[in-house]
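Hi Q.,

Before the meeting this afternoon, I wanted you to have the benzoic acid prediction in hand. No need to reply - just skim if you have a minute. The sequence and ligand are here:
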Amino acid sequence: MALQIGDKVPDFEAETSEGPIRFYDYIDGKWAVLFSHPKNFTPVCTTELGYTAKLKDEFAKRGVVVMGLSVDKLVDHDKWAKDIEETQGTALNFPLIADHDRKVATLYGMIHPNASDTMTVRSVFVIGPDKALKMSLNYPASTGRNFDEILRVIDSLQLTAQHKVATPVNWKHGEDVIIVPAVSNEEAKERFPGGWKELKPYLRIVPQPK
Ligand code: BEZ
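Predicted structure with the ligand bound:
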């Protein structure tokens, strides 16, 4: 069965563009993003990897480590990395798994046989410091993902983990947030001494905590 939110993600060992890595050691105690892209030397993937490399400081600010995956050989990763740097203006700065035997792709359900039985779809897994899956998504090969949206989701997840708030529709960093229903008014008074706007007893709005 596909990995579901709350599941502990599986560990693996893999060859990557930065040497052999055991996944649990790499993500240990940190937030992490693991994402697949269908194939090396393909146009949409080239743009995605370049953009993700550009976001290095944004991921670091949030304490997030990133790892990519492609079902290609390490030698091809090295060649393709040069193209990414040349065309996107940024060199790869995170490990890219060389999953030519599709071991990790299969473990994480990144191959959807009715789409393609050789390439992965565009999967993203956001993993918490407890190694539990917090969010996943799958896009088809022809649609590049919005990595700014991945950052937005991470901001929301981290606010929930740290402050017990949820984020409303189309929320952006800095906008008001919602006290999660599991927080009683008594607890809310302690957590949010400045008070909140109560539109309904279940809809309590506060400024985004810092
Ligand atoms: C691409 O990355 O551009 C791509 C990969 C596989 C199928 C279609 C597009």
